[in-house]
């Protein structure tokens, strides 16, 4: 409720002089806080503006702020862009605040196509994650975005979690990949430890040394727009030029805490003989050659779940190995 409306509603109920003085004090404080918020927003926009050039700023873009916190910033950073769901509204009237929730991308995809934009960018409600739509209206996998940023930023060191795909693990750039446990707490620790320029997670978190080793959806959007501005072709063409792999997506299996160690040992005993690489940084991650495929099994920090991810160059290999791993995990529950 606006301050003048609040005053009009309450003042007739309390006509005493003390209460009028109280209302005046609250109104003054409200005005002071409002001015402070505007000042902080302007300072933040000025800080972010140091990190992008005009070529990136004027790329035809559509932003979906999910009625979250990024709207007031994006409006000032990108005055020429098309912005949908920019007004912060905790009721989230147009779609869920999580971009990965079913149906959350539809508005943005349609707008990108109707406006013939080069890229669509959607943030989650608190703005620490960003996801991208190419100029054909297709969702771009976060691994592909990370690869694009590796190409553009050329970091000396970068951090990625154990779920990073072949595209990241086998990148051709002169950047050293450092593997971390999944989760922003662990990624940030690794970023600082290695003084890494860049980090990413499959969940849409992108980390930057220039952003205090932390994740930021808006900073990621700026970096991606820079990268697109450097491409000799469209984002969709860039995506289509990359090698195709087949992934399972994350599959969850209920499992008690007491059986976690047994499950990991069972998996290691079953696969280590033929493995090219085994990592135990976060659960267990196993890579294979001829045929080329990998999987990870790790545990949720908040639920009694084992999380399986698998990727293969060949779809038949994916299906075969996914079936075997599913049976193995279910037997160990």
Automatic annotation (TrEMBL):
Cofactor needs: Mg(2+)
Positions in coiled-coil regions: none
Ranges for domain Alpha-D-phosphohexomutase alpha/beta/alpha: 43-137, 145-241
Protein name stated in the entry: Phosphoglucomutase/phosphomannomutase alpha/beta/alpha domain I
Biological processes, Gene Ontology terms: carbohydrate metabolic process
MF annotations from Gene Ontology: intramolecular phosphotransferase activity; metal ion binding
Occurrences of domain Alpha-D-phosphohexomutase C-terminal (ranges): 259-324
Gene3D superfamilies linked to this entry: Alpha-D-Glucose-1,6-Bisphosphate, subunit A, domain 3 (3.40.120.10), Alpha-D-phosphohexomutase, C-terminal domain (3.30.310.50)
Key words, A-Z: Isomerase, Magnesium, Metal-binding, Phosphoprotein
Protein origin, superkingdom: Bacteria
């Amino acid at each position: 409720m606006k301050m003048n409306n609040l005053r009009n509603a309450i003042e007739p109920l309390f006509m005493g002089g003390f209460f009028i003085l109280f209302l005046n004090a609250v109104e003054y404080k409200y005005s002071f806080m409002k001015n402070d918020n505007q000042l902080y927003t302007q300072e933040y926009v000025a800080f972010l503006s140091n990190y992008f050039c005009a070529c990136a700023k004027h790329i035809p873009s559509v932003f979906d702020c999910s009625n979250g916190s990024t709207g007031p910033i994006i409006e000032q950073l990108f005055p020429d862009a098309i912005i949908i769901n920019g007004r912060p509204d905790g009721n989230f009237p147009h779609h869920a605040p999580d971009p990965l929730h079913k149906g959350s991308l539809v508005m943005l995809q349609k707008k990108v196509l109707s406006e013939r934009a080069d890229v669509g960018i959607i943030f989650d409600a608190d703005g620490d994650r960003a996801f991208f739509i190419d100029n054909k209206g297709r969702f771009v996998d976060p691994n592909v975005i990370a690869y694009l940023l590796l190409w553009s930023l050329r970091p000396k060191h970068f951090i990625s979690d154990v779920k990073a795909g072949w595209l990241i693990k086998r990148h051709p750039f002169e950047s050293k990949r450092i593997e971390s446990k999944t989760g922003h707490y662990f990624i940030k620790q690794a970023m600082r430890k290695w003084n890494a320029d860049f980090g990413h997670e499959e969940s849409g978190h992108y980390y930057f040394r220039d952003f205090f080793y932390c994740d930021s959806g808006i900073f990621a959007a700026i970096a991606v727009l820079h990268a697109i501005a450097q491409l000799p072709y469209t984002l969709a063409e860039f995506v289509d030029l990359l090698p195709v792999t087949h992934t399972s997506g994350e599959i969850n299996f209920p499992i008690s805490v007491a059986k976690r160690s047994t499950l990991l040992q069972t998996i290691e005993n079953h696969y280590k003989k033929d493995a090219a690489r085994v990592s135990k940084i976060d659960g267990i991650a196993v890579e294979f050659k001829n045929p080329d495929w990998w999987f990870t099994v790790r545990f949720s920090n908040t639920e009694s779940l084992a999380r399986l991810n698998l990727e293969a160059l060949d779809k038949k290999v994916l299906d075969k190995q996914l079936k075997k791993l599913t049976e193995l995990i279910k037997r160990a529950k």
